């Protein structure tokens, strides 16, 4: 019996190249948030310019009942749009400051400039101060006592930020009320009244969009980001959204029938606009309930092809009706 043992194979020695030491600021760079754009653009992003279309869409609705149109009326409408743009931008900055810890728990909102750390809290506070001063200047320059809708909007928005946003249903109703105040600001700037049916239509439409956004957040971010979601379920929100969509369509038709000054001169054109309104509502419900979208209603309006074509056709019909109503017979 051979008792000799074979010698083990020599171990391979792998030479390890020495690594250069990390520079002293490497750890700081690793902890710092990645910057993909210049700092001024991050400050500008705090103002949420993609949301300004809300003011451009709602405030000028008062022009529908303004007769006759004039350059002065358009300038006053522009003044109202600027005021609500400043007011809403101030609210966005203050809300982002207050919600920065909660926004970090959201898969999308954690990328906002303050939540991500690209903009510091002192810089955001300074920006909010500048917006507040600009808003005061806007109120002083404009017509006396015609800025109260913007003031009420600020009051309810800050109350929303301080705690009302955590109360189910109240949170969505406050958001929708802000859009009725935009409509009132446009009417005050023109010196005209606000149609009750038009105000109800705007309120219901914006309430539907707000409820749809909360439905989407139930599955996207959970309860940690928005405590008010504890008062909702998907089934409950589905019923509410459909109910409010029906009220939106009914109030729009009632506005055309009873209050729209341009409807009497172009009844056929106005009648044709009603299916556009119903299609727009149906398309949003399809995106929300079938495609599980609805996180950003503004993005749906600007990017969804069916919605864009429908809105264009709708706008053309209303423009034709307005031109016919202002044409002397």
Q: Terminal Cα separation, in Å?
A: 125 Å
Low-confidence stretches: 1-35
Our count of helices gives 13
Q: What average pLDDT do the residues reach?
A: 81
The run of helices and strands is HHHHHHHHHHHHH
State which percent range the strand residues make up.
Answer: under 5%
The largest β sheet comes out as: none
**Structural class of the secondary structure composition?**
mainly alpha
Helix-residue proportion: 55-70%
CA radius of gyration: 27 Å
Count of β-strands: 0
Shape: globular
Structural features, described:
The protein has 329 residues and is mostly helical. It is 64% helix and 0% strand. The chain contains 13 helices and no strands. It has helices at 26-31, 39-46, 53-58, 71-98, 100-103, 121-141, 148-162, 170-190, 196-220, 234-258, 267-290, 297-303, 305-326. The protein is globular, with a radius of gyration of 27 Å. The termini are far apart.
Layout: helices, strands, pairs:
Blueprint: H1 26-31, H2 39-46, H3 53-58, H4 71-98, H5 100-103, H6 121-141, H7 148-162, H8 170-190, H9 196-220, H10 234-258, H11 267-290, H12 297-303, H13 305-326
Helix pairs in contact: 4-6, 4-7, 4-8, 7-8, 8-9, 9-10, 10-11, 11-13, 12-13
């Amino acid at each position: 019996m051979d008792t000799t043992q074979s010698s083990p194979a020599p171990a391979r020695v792998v030479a390890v190249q020495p690594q250069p030491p990390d520079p002293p600021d490497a750890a700081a760079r690793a902890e710092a948030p990645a910057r993909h754009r210049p700092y001024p653009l991050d400050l500008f992003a705090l103002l949420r310019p993609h949301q300004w279309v809300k003011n451009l869409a709602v405030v000028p609705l008062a022009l529908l009942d303004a007769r006759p149109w004039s350059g002065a009326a358009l300038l006053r409408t522009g003044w109202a749009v600027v005021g609500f743009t400043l007011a809403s931008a101030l609210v966005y900055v203050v809300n982002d400051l207050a919600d920065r810890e909660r926004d970090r728990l959201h898969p999308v909102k954690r990328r906002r400039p303050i939540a991500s750390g690209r903009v510091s809290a002192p810089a955001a506070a300074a920006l909010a101060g500048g917006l507040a001063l600009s808003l005061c200047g806007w109120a002083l320059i404009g017509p006396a006592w015609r800025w109260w809708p913007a003031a009420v909007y600020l009051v309810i928005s800050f109350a929303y930020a301080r705690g009302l946003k955590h109360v189910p249903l109240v949170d969505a109703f406050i958001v929708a009320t802000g859009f009725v105040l935009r409509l009132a600001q446009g009417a005050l700037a023109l010196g005209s009244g606000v149609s009750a049916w038009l105000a109800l239509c705007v309120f219901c439409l914006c309430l539907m969009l707000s409820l749809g956004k909360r439905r989407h957040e139930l599955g996207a971010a959970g309860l940690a980001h928005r405590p008010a979601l504890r008062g909702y379920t998907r089934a409950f929100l589905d019923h509410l959204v459909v109910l409010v969509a029906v009220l939106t369509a009914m109030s729009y038709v009632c506005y055309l029938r009873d209050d729209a000054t341009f409807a009497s001169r172009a009844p056929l054109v106005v009648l044709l606009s009603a299916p556009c309104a119903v299609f727009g509502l149906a398309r949003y419900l399809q995106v929300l309930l079938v495609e599980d979208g609805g996180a950003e209603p503004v993005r749906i309006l600007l990017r969804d092809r069916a919605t864009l074509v429908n809105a264009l056709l709708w706008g053309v019909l209303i423009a034709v009706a307005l031109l016919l109503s202002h044409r002397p017979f």
